[in-house]
Design a protein that fits this description.
The chain is mainly beta. Strands 6-10-9-8-7 form a 5-stranded mixed β-sheet, with no helix packed on it. Strands 15, 16, 17, 18 and 19 form a 5-stranded antiparallel β-sheet that branches. The chain starts with 25 loop residues before the first strand and ends with a helix. The longest helix has 10 residues.
């Protein structure tokens, strides 16, 4: 049996599957857990990050306003399902005014490491790049230097140093609706200076795995297991009706995480429900956060639905890793 390496999380949100499963993930019966009116000003709440915090949970949420201004907001929950999202966006403090300039902020991830909660997001600085910050209480956020030059999206830290280095996944992009995208891993001794960039994996050929043939990008912070880093990612295909976003999964080498051990040919979850297919960006299931319980192997995945609302899905490490290996490319 695959073993999650990490903390016990007995209060992880959970619901057993009903009926036979074709795919390794199943949806929460109460989806969407956060509607488009998640706070006082939101047009939509999606592509957000959740972590254990205290006796419950905290998160950083993408809330696009009714002016369609993209920003990130703190939120709190006792059970990981019912959320209170603040009406005021995250306020950053930092050493230099230059990096505190705010153009737009979206698609956050959060991980706990070195005694802090680290936040990564797509930060507007003459185009999209990767913003980094840390917090201890989800009220005061300390912004660090942007990790890269524009243009880049989908910055995701590994939750511990590997061989003495911080490691960050990202997807170099452009300044528009990027029609390409591969995942790279970059290394840093201090979360400021990034280098040693390594290619991890890229979009596929259409005839090999069509659902991820246009672009891919990392999703939640990877989950460490005794079989490798478990990565959930998104893949995109361009159809006659536009882009379609689905989820895939991969196992990465623990010491050299840019080396892919297994990668799914088949997707693990795609847009089929009305709340995933109808919204501001139809046909989108976009994963950004995952909770994991080392004792039971349970995993809860938070994902954006149609760029409008937030959904929750479940799996186990055993089920997902078996699916990755059985349906590997």
């Amino acid at each position: 049996m695959a073993q999650i390496i990490g903390q016990s999380l007995p209060n992880i949100p959970w619901e057993e599957p009903s009926g036979d499963l074709r795919l390794p993930l199943w949806r929460y019966s109460g989806n969407p857990i956060i509607g488009r009116d998640g706070n006082a000003i939101s047009n939509s709440v999606f592509n957000s990050a959740v972590v254990p915090y205290g006796s419950g949970f905290a998160g950083v949420f993408r809330c696009d306003s009714t002016a369609i201004v993209m920003d990130i907001f703190p939120g709190f929950s006792e059970d990981g399902i019912h959320w209170h999202i603040e009406d005021e966006p995250v306020t950053m403090c930092g050493a230099e005014e230059e990096i505190l300039r705010k153009e737009y902020r979206y698609d956050p991830r959060v991980c706990y490491m070195d005694g802090h909660y680290y936040v990564m997001w797509c930060n507007g600085y003459h185009g999209p790049t990767i913003g980094l910050a840390w917090t201890d209480d989800f009220h005061t956020f300390h912004q660090l230097e942007n990790a890269f030059l524009p243009f880049n999206r989908n910055g995701v830290l590994f939750p511990r140093k590997i061989n003495g280095q911080y490691m960050l996944m990202s997807r170099p992009s452009d300044n528009g609706h990027t029609a390409f995208g591969d995942i790279f891993v970059s290394q840093s001794p201090d979360l400021v200076y990034w280098g040693k960039h390594r290619f991890m994996m890229g979009a596929t050929e259409f005839n090999d795995s069509g659902w991820q043939c246009l672009k891919i990008g990392p999703g939640p912070v990877p989950i460490e297991t005794d079989e490798g880093w478990l990565l959930i990612y998104h893949g995109v295909i361009r159809t006659c009706n536009g882009y379609v976003y689905r989820m895939g999964a991969a196992l990465l080498d623990l010491d050299e995480p840019w080396k892919v051990l297994f990668r799914t040919k088949n997707y693990i979850l795609g847009p089929t429900e009305i709340y995933e297919c109808v919204g501001d960006v139809p046909n989108t299931t976009f994963p950004c956060a995952a909770l994991a319980d080392a004792d039971t192997g349970r995993i809860a995945v938070y994902y954006g639905c149609a760029d409008t609302v937030t959904g929750l899905a479940f799996t186990t490490a055993d089920r997902l890793i078996d699916y990755i290996k059985t349906h590997a490319m």
